[in-house]
Amino acid sequence: MTAVEKPRSFSTAPSLEYEEQRCGAAIFSARLCAANRIAVTVVGEIDALNGREFGRYVERHARVSKQLVLDLRAVDFFGTAGFTALYYISVHCARSDVEWTIVAGPPVRQLLAVCDPDGEFPLAPDLSAALARLDRLTHGVAHVIWTAQAGWHRPAGSSPLAHRQGR
């Protein structure tokens, strides 16, 4: 009997709808919110073990979109490797013309208060403000929000056309 080896096939492009990856004490997930917007969420800890992979994960997913929401509200620990990753993400987004924003919890905010005292990173106070910022940057396109009951959806009474017309 001869062994038949199946050729390996893989794609460097991320899934267009949802992808999740565990790395060290963190779980990274990416979800396409709209045709031009992707959300990357981190749950757990960003430290020296996974900081570089965090930056690479975000870079891979930011390639498929022109807007990035980086949701770090569920991060329990954020070390200096996380700050380095944010700098890397910032450079990638600037070079790739990707508008981005960060929604952060207390550990991330504490580190940014020390490492980014001038507020150079696009830190939003909450998810609604982050989405509103990206909407303003795209000249009034209605945003998609996430709720536990309905998942990703457009807010009631908002359509891109109605939003552009000032309704």
Structure description:
This protein is of the alpha/beta class. The protein has one domain: Transcription Regulator spoIIAA (2-Layer Sandwich). Helix content is 33%, strand content 31%. It contains 5 helices and 8 strands. The chain has a 6-stranded mixed sheet with strand order 1-2-3-4-5-6, with helices on both faces. A two-stranded antiparallel ribbon has the order 7-8. Strand 4, helix 2 and strand 5 (99-104) form a beta-alpha-beta unit. Helix 1 packs parallel to helix 2. The longest helix has 17 residues, at 80-96. It is globular. Residues 4-14 and 160-167 have low confidence and may be disordered.
CATH class bucket: Alpha Beta
CATH second-level architecture: 2-Layer Sandwich
CATH superfamily: STAS domain
- Give the termini distance in whole angstroms: 72 Å
Average pLDDT figure = 80
| Spatial strand sequence of the major β-sheet | 1-2-3-4-5-6
Number of helices: 5
Poorly predicted parts: 4-14, 160-167
According to DSSP, the number of beta strands is 8
Largest sheet: 6 strands, mixed
Helix content: 25-40%
CATH topology: Transcription Regulator spoIIAA
Globular, elongated, flat, extended or rod-shaped: what is the shape? globular
Would you tell me the structural class of the helices and strands?
alpha/beta
